[in-house]
Amino acid sequence: MDTQRRGTRAGEPGASGRPGARAVPPATVARLPGYLRALRGLTADGVVTTSSDELAGGAGVTPAQLRKDLSFLGSYGRRGVGYDVGHLSEQIAVVLGLTTQRSVVIVGIGNLGHALASYSVFAERGFAVVGLVDADPAVVGTTVAGLVVQPPDELASLVSGSDATIGIIATPASVAQDVCDALVAAGVVGILTFAPRALRVPPTVDLRAVDVASELQILAFHDRRRTGTGA
Amino acid sequence: MDTQRRGTRAGEPGASGRPGARAVPPATVARLPGYLRALRGLTADGVVTTSSDELAGGAGVTPAQLRKDLSFLGSYGRRGVGYDVGHLSEQIAVVLGLTTQRSVVIVGIGNLGHALASYSVFAERGFAVVGLVDADPAVVGTTVAGLVVQPPDELASLVSGSDATIGIIATPASVAQDVCDALVAAGVVGILTFAPRALRVPPTVDLRAVDVASELQILAFHDRRRTGTGA
DNA sequence: TAGATTGTTAATCGATTAACAATC
DNA sequence: TAGATTGTTAATCGATTAACAATC
C-alpha cells in the first residue's frame, strides 16, 4: 500500500544485527509479513517443505521476487530441495523482530478504535494491546476488549508503565497530530495512523499511515478508466 | 499497502480520457488523494492560491515530488504565481474519477465491517455505502448505519440493483477468497480487502489490500533495529 | 524590470524481472 | 548420474531527486 505506501522509512543500511548481513530493502520488508502468513498457512496444512513456486503462489508474488527477497535475509533454502517451512518461518520472524512480544496502545476508541482493540489477529501475530485512550468522558471508564478506557492525561504513564513501543491513532483527523506528538513524547518508536491527515514525526520514530478513504479513491481512478466516466 | 502497495495495478498506459495526456504512473495515483486532502484543508482555511512548497508541506511530500506528480495531469499552475486551490482540487477530482458518486458494498459486518459502514469520511469523499452483507443469521436483518444487513445470497442483486462498482471485504480470512469471487461475479470492478490473506482476482478487477497486522509487523522490524532485540 | 515559482529535463537511485550457474 | 530448485548476477524498468530554463 503500498502503501501505502506512504510512511515507510528506509532504516539505516548495514545496521542489521547479524554481521555480514546485507541491509534489507524497504520493499522487501513490506512483503515479509505476507510470506510469514503464507508459511503459517502451509504449516496448518501439514506441509513441511515448500518451493519458491508454491510459497510465492500462496503469497501472491512471483517466484523470482520471493527468492530475491529471501536472499537479503540469508541462505535458508536448499538447492534442488526447497525451504523447510518451520525453519524459514522462524528466520523471518527473527528478522521482523517478532521473537519479542510488542505492546501496543490505541488512542481513539470510536467505531474503528473499538474494532482494532477487539481484533484477534493482533494477538495471533504477536502483538498485545495493553492500553486504550479516549478524550470523550462518556467513553473513559468503559471496558472495551477487557481493558478500561483511560483519559488522555494517562497516556504517558500507560506507555511507560507497559513498555509499549507502538501507538495506533484512530482519532478524528483534527486531533491526530496532537495525539501523535503525545505518543512520541511518551516514548513509542512506531506509530500506525488511520487518521486521514499527513502527520509529522521525528526521524527516530517510524510512521505508517492507512487511509481507507484514499484506498477507495485509488480504486475509483481505475474504475473511471473502465467506465469512461470523469474525463 | 504498499497497499498495501501490494495490489496496485498499472492500468493501461495511454488509455486516459484526455487526448495527448500522458499516462499517470501508479505511484503518482496513490499520492493524489493526499494532495486532494491537503487542498481541502487549504480551502477550509480560506486559502485561494497556494505554492508547491505549501501544498507539499501539507501533504507530507517534497515540492519537487508534488510538481512532478502534477505534471502528469497537465499544467494547472502558473509560473511565478502558484496553483488555484479550487481549480486544482477540481482537476484532481476529475482525474481520480470522483465527479461521479461511487457506490460501495461491504461484506462482513463484524467489528471492522461495522466501523467501516459507519465511517463518515467515505461520504465526505464521495462514496456511498449502499449495501451490507453478512453470513451470520444473528447479524442478518439487523440495522447498521441505517442499512439492513442482507444474507450472502442477496449479494448479486444488491450489487446490480445499486450499480455498486466497489466491494469491501471485512470477513475472516478463511472465507475471503469465496467472498472475493462472489463480488467479482456480481460485477464490481474494484475490491478493497482487509482480510489477512492473498486474494486472486481477474485482471479486469482492481484489488487493494490493507492488512493492519502486517503494518504492525513492519513497524516491529524498525523497532527491533532500534532496541536491538531479535537477532 | 526583478523576483518568484512552475514545468521539464537529466541524473540518480531503488525495485523488479529474467536467466543461469551452483548445488542438493 | 539426472532432475530439480535455489541464490545470484545482469538487464530492465520505474520512481525520485535536483537543477534550471521558461514564464508569470
Topology, element by element:
2 copies of one chain form a homodimer.
Chain A: H1 26-44, E1 49-50, H2 52-59, H3 63-71, E2 77-78, E3 82-84, H4 85-96, E4 102-107, H5 111-117, H6 120-124, E5 127-133, E6 143-144, E7 147-148, H7 155-162, E8 166-169, H8 173-186, E9 190-193, E10 206-209, H9 212-227
Parallel strand pairs in A: 4-5, 4-8, 8-9, 9-10
Antiparallel strand pairs in A: 1-3, 2-3, 6-7
Helix pairs in contact in A: 1-2, 1-4, 2-3, 7-8
The first copy, chain A, binds a DNA duplex (24 and 24 nucleotides) through residues 25-28, 51-53, 62-65, 67-68, 70-71, 75, 77-83.
What this model shows, in words?
Two copies of one chain form a homodimer. Chain A is an alpha/beta fold and 231 residues long. The first copy, chain A, has two domains: 26-96, Orthogonal Bundle (Arc Repressor Mutant, subunit A); 102-214, 3-Layer(aba) Sandwich (Rossmann fold). Chain A has nine helices and ten strands. Chain A has helices at 26-44, 52-59, 63-71, 85-96, 111-117, 120-124, 155-162, 173-186, 212-227, and strands spanning 49-50, 77-78, 82-84, 102-107, 127-133, 143-144, 147-148, 166-169, 190-193, 206-209. In chain A, the strands form three sheets. In chain A, strands 5-4-8-9-10 form a five-stranded parallel β-sheet, sandwiched between helices. Chain A is globular and about 60 Å long. Chain A starts with 25 loop residues before the first helix and ends with a helix. At the A-B interface, helix 1, helix 4, helix 5, helix 6 and strand 9 of A face helix 1, helix 4, helix 5, helix 6 and strand 9 of B. The first copy, chain A, binds a DNA duplex (24 and 24 nucleotides) through helix 1, helix 3 and strand 2.
